[in-house]
Write a structure and sequence with these properties.
Helix content: 55-70%
CATH topology of the largest domain: 434 Repressor (Amino-terminal Domain)
Number of helices: 8
Largest sheet: 3 strands, mixed
Strand content: 5-15%
CATH superfamily of the largest domain: lambda repressor-like DNA-binding domains
Structural class: mainly alpha
CATH class of the largest domain: Mainly Alpha
Order of helices and strands: EHHHHHEEHHH
Strand order of the largest sheet: 1-2-3
């Protein structure tokens, strides 16, 4: 643990993920607010969603659950952070410590490299879902269709 100011607050990390996921799903601030209203006692205003994305509010367990449902993601995905240290009220935790709490630690699961593999697979999934790569894959499929079936060698 180190002093304050070395990283980003956990609420800011969550806010960045909410903004990223909302943009990926092409939802407006208002649409996300309305979607949250299906799970919470009332919808969030545009301003409330904007504040959340800027890390300017704390989240209840119910709100995190509703956000995951509305954004079609998992609760741990909302907590993902880049390599910044994460600030908690008592001080900062390292990126490695922080990533460790996002993994499902079953009692019988070996910890030798399994966690690193899970993180790597998640990161690969993130990269493969980037719009540019999705477009490239589609271009590749079209190219294959235009080229037609490969001639059979006899």
């Amino acid at each position: 643990m180190t002093g304050v100011g070395d990283g980003m607050r956990v609420e800011e990390a969550i806010g960045l993920q909410i903004a990223r996921l909302r943009a990926e799903r092409r939802m407006s601030l208002t649409e996300l607010g309305e979607a949250l209203g299906r799970y919470l006692d009332r919808p969030w205003s545009r301003q409330a969603v904007h504040q959340a994305e800027r890390g300017q509010r704390a989240f209840t367990a119910a709100e995190l659950t509703a956000l995951a449902l509305a954004l079609d993601t998992s609760v741990p995905a909302l907590f993902r952070a880049e390599d910044d240290r994460i600030e908690l009220p008592g001080g900062a935790v390292s990126p490695e410590e922080y990533r460790g709490i996002l993994l499902n630690r079953e009692r019988n699961t070996p910890l030798d490299g399994v966690e690193e593999l899970i993180i790597a697979l998640h990161d690969i999934g993130e990269v493969l879902s980037r719009p540019a790569l999705v477009r490239l894959a589609r271009i590749g499929e079209v190219a294959d269709q235009v080229a037609g079936p490969e001639p059979h060698r006899t």
